[in-house]
């Protein structure tokens, strides 16, 4: 019986029995039984075996499964010793879902799809050897981090590392469009190419002139952003890796753009088919001024990007609207229209209730906290990438007269539960930083020169985290409690510290820093002053005890790092970003990202297989009461946790809000007349997030009365 005709198996049935309580107890042992049956009935009989590691590798190279180049950088003796080390760790999956996900989605299979050619140890080995680039010490260190699941590369990296037939290692891309037909055309081609390569594509349309704006040399008027959105949606639908996956894209628009209402309406279920976008994600870029106008219930003006660019000489995205708002209103040369701010705010909330969109980017918050020179104008498909960009200028031959900078995302994640058990926390984080550095160094997106240029100049990476709720549950902390915030503060401070240490070490080794380092707050030293003046240390007794054996930097340690960075620089412009990592958290047997779990027993529909049930990681009688569902939790607790981490994260975090359509009584003090979810609830929570310094909000997910979830992860690449 091969993988193509597996019929008489017991593991799906055993797994499904988890969802049937026995004496009011969750029969967790059924998941262990399903796991054992999966290996016995599926993995073991369908895995191709080899007499030795050398014969396996030779076979995989000869049959075009593995690249020979990265393996040739090591002796076979070393590779065998690496395998011996991995074997001695006695790795085991902890749940049926973890094993099923790995073998179904990540393990290399033969051309017929009938045999597994890789185990988990194989995939870890090939990742370690690939990212270490010939450095034996680093390869062993990476293997150690991955086999103990302290570090998890992003899905494209983990899946593709070392393979001969593969996509790119990067997770997603960001492009901005400027207000001319050459840029629109070139961007559509770029979107086609990037979607073909793999990963989601974020696109900023904020610079485009609005519907009805004049077009120089023509009697007609511009059609606005909606037709361009349709062109991008069709591009992603077409460029889908030969039908292997759905192309994924998000378009961003500034809330002060005159087309904002049409932009939002295009996602409504009852929108006219001529303008409706079905698969494209939407994001809204919101300056501080919008929150002020809505809070005061005032009229707001929407400004023409065309007239703004003519008046200020810069694209619309690069104008500080909060700072310039009053002057824009008073300037007769700026075309503008007036609407009610709260009515627009309610339209945003209505759409979030209906679809989960739009994502929200608090752009002034992002730029206030940005330590490097330049302007952040947008984000990516999962709202955690926040990096500066520079516009390009494209001539009539579709060539770059000015090559700007766009963005590729190089992501990976720490597993909080396992990293906290590392024998050397700092060494672990430094090793992960090296792995991500290889990804950014090896990335060559020649087909989109602006992305290639941004990557070459800035060497950006995004190390994040998963498993925060699992760690809280195992350590008997309520999500959002004082102790949980205390732990979050220390953990992300340490990620920040050690990635800075390693970025400095790489810059010193290579005598190379990121572009315009000398204009950054790192170069001036200002960035470090907050850590020197107010050292981040545990406040609660429980968290003091948790970190008692882990190095915590003192003011003098931060001062020494400040002096070293001022002298030698940093290699990476950006280092930290917290992605949703929903898919691969299953393989890591931990909760996704840093948000709460949604269910004690999660139910997933796995294509043709049917339903698979996944118990919350480390679920037991001891952890049960600490696993409150996100849908039953005050979202201000979630926002507080993210805001605590955000203080140390130089980019963003994929913060999802979870609400029930019927909100539990007593959860929010303002719910005095109805339990039904309203636009007011979302308005209040968005304002709270803004005031807490949150840079972005990803989906708003609503659990309906008929047990459906509105708003869910759309990008398998960015969910790590």
TrEMBL record:
Q: What are the GO BP annotations of this UniProt entry?
A: deoxyribonucleotide biosynthetic process
* Enzyme class of the recorded protein, top EC level: oxidoreductase
Q: One GO cellular component term, please give it.
A: ribonucleoside-diphosphate reductase complex
Q: EC number(s) per UniProt? A: 1.17.4.1
Question: Which residues are in the Ribonucleotide reductase large subunit domain?
Answer: 558-580
Which reaction(s) does its UniProt entry say it catalyses? a 2'-deoxyribonucleoside 5'-diphosphate + [thioredoxin]-disulfide + H2O = a ribonucleoside 5'-diphosphate + [thioredoxin]-dithiol
Task performed by this protein: Provides the precursors necessary for DNA synthesis. Catalyzes the biosynthesis of deoxyribonucleotides from the corresponding ribonucleotides.
Q: What is this protein called?
A: Ribonucleoside-diphosphate reductase
| Organism of provenance | Vagococcus entomophilus
């Amino acid at each position: 019986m091969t993988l193509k005709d597996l019929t008489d198996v017991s593991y799906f049935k055993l797994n499904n029995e988890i969802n049937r309580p026995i004496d009011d107890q969750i029969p967790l042992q059924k998941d262990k039984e399903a796991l054992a049956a999966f290996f016995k009935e599926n993995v073991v009989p369908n895995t191709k075996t080899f007499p030795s590691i050398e014969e396996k590798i030779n076979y995989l190279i000869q049959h075009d499964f593995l690249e020979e180049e990265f393996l040739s950088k090591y002796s076979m003796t070393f590779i065998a010793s690496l395998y011996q080390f991995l074997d001695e760790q006695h790795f085991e999956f902890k749940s049926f879902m973890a094993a099923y996900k790995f073998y179904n989605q990540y393990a290399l299979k033969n051309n017929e799809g009938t045999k597994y050619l890789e185990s988990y140890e194989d995939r870890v080995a090939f990742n370690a050897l690939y990212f270490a680039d010939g450095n034996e010490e680093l390869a062993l260190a990476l293997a150690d981090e991955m086999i103990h699941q302290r570090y998890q590369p992003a899905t494209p990296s983990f899946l593709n590392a070392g393979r001969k037939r593969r996509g790119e290692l990067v997770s997603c891309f960001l492009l901005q469009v400027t207000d001319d037909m050459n840029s629109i055309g070139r961007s559509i081609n770029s979107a086609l190419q990037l979607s073909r390569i793999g990963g989601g594509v974020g696109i900023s349309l904020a610079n485009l002139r609005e519907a009805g704006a004049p077009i120089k040399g023509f009697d007609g008027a511009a059609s606005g952003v909606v037709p361009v959105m349709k062109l991008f949606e069709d591009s992603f639908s077409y460029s889908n890796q030969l039908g292997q996956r759905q192309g994924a894209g998000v378009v961003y628009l500034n809330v002060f753009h005159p087309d904002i209402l049409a932009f939002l309406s295009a996602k409504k279920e009852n929108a006219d088919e001529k303008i409706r976008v079905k698969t494209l994600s939407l994001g809204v870029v919101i300056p501080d001024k919008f929150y002020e106008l809505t809070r005061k219930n005032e009229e707001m003006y929407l400004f023409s990007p065309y007239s703004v660019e003519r008046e200020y000489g810069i694209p619309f995205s690069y104008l500080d609207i909060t700072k310039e708002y009053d002057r824009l209103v008073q300037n007769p040369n700026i075309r503008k229209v007036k609407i009610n701010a709260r009515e627009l705010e309610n339209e945003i909330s209505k759409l979030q209730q209906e679809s989960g969109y739009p994502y929200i980017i608090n752009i002034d918050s992002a730029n206030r906290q940005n330590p490097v020179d330049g302007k952040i104008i947008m984000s990516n498909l999962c709202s955690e990438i926040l990096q500066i960009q520079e516009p390009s200028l494209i001539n009539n031959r579709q060539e770059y007269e000015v090559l700007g900078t766009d963005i590729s995302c190089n992501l990976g994640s720490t597993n909080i539960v396992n990293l906290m058990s590392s024998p050397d926390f700092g060494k672990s984080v430094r090793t992960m930083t090296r792995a991500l550095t290889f990804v950014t160094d090896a990335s060559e997106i020649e087909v989109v020169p602006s992305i290639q240029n941004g990557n070459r100049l800035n060497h950006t990476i995004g190390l994040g985290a998963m498993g925060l709720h699992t760690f809280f549950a195992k350590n008997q902390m309520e999500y959002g409690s004082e102790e949980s915030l205390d732990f979050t503060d220390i953990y992300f401070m340490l990620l920040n510290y050690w990635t800075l240490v390693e970025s400095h070490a790489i810059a010193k080794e290579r005598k190379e820093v990121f572009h315009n380092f000398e204009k950054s707050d790192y170069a001036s030293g200002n960035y470090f002053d907050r850590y020197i003046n107010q050292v981040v240390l545990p406040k609660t007794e429980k968290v003091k005890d948790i970190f008692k054996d882990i190095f915590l930097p003192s003011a003098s340690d931060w001062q020494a790092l400040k002096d070293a960075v001022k002298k030698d620089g940093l290699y990476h412009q950006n280092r930290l970003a917290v992605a949703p990592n929903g898919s691969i958290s299953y393989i890591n047997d931990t909760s996704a990202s840093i948000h709460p779990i949604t269910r004690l027993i999660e139910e997933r529909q796995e294509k043709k297989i049917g339903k698979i049930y996944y118990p919350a990681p480390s679920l037991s009688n001891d952890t049960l009461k600490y696993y409150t569902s996100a849908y039953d939790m005050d979202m201000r607790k979630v926002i507080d946790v993210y805001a605590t981490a955000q203080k140390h994260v130089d980019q963003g975090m994929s913060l999802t809000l979870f609400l029930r359509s019927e909100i539990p009584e007593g959860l929010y003090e303002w719910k005095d007349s109805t339990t039904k979810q309203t636009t007011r609830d979302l308005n209040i929570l968005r304002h709270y997030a803004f005031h807490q310094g949150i840079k972005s909000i990803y989906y708003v997910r609503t659990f309906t009365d008929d047990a459906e979830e509105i708003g869910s992860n759309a990008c398998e690449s960015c969910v790590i």
